[in-house]
């Protein structure tokens, strides 16, 4: 895996640096998530219990499946500057060596193997649209979207094969069905353990 290199105009670099400064200086209540989504610094309230439970269940399954050189991080800032994005995914699977080498609170999103987002009712569209496009653009190989608020009922979608700002749907299931995460994760995720409320 290598960081994606993109030529950017000096004006964009200054704008990006300004956005990151605002992100770093934003004071938010404990548990809130501060992100930059499409050039706008956003603050999301802490997630509810079912959201946290889903993240915890996925985290435990990933810990059991991954080898020691991988880390599963919950509050890691991931940069996508060419989309004016700095996301804090619910879970990011990243080689420990990448995180060890970073001095700040963020890494390039391109260093991740898997990003996991669990939707919240108030900002589900960010996870479905802006973040999916951002992660694809960064070249993150796998994006797992747990959409508790999908119009047809709770669904889990695994995206892969990023091309530009678009992923291909590798698998989509309803809560209760199994979902297979490919290598290097190699995990059959039992979504029946997820709360539906």
Automatic annotation (TrEMBL):
<dbReference type="InterPro" id="IPR012296">
    <property type="entry name" value="Nuclease_put_TT1808"/>
</dbReference>
<dbReference type="Pfam" id="PF05685">
    <property type="entry name" value="Uma2"/>
</dbReference>
<keyword id="KW-0255">Endonuclease</keyword>
<dbReference type="GO" id="GO:0004519">
    <property type="term" value="F:endonuclease activity"/>
</dbReference>
<keyword id="KW-0540">Nuclease</keyword>
<protein>
    <submittedName>
        <fullName>Uma2 family endonuclease</fullName>
    </submittedName>
</protein>
<dbReference type="InterPro" id="IPR011335">
    <property type="entry name" value="Restrct_endonuc-II-like"/>
</dbReference>
<feature type="domain" description="Putative restriction endonuclease">
    <location>
        <begin position="31"/>
        <end position="184"/>
    </location>
</feature>
<keyword id="KW-0378">Hydrolase</keyword>
<dbReference type="InterPro" id="IPR008538">
    <property type="entry name" value="Uma2"/>
</dbReference>
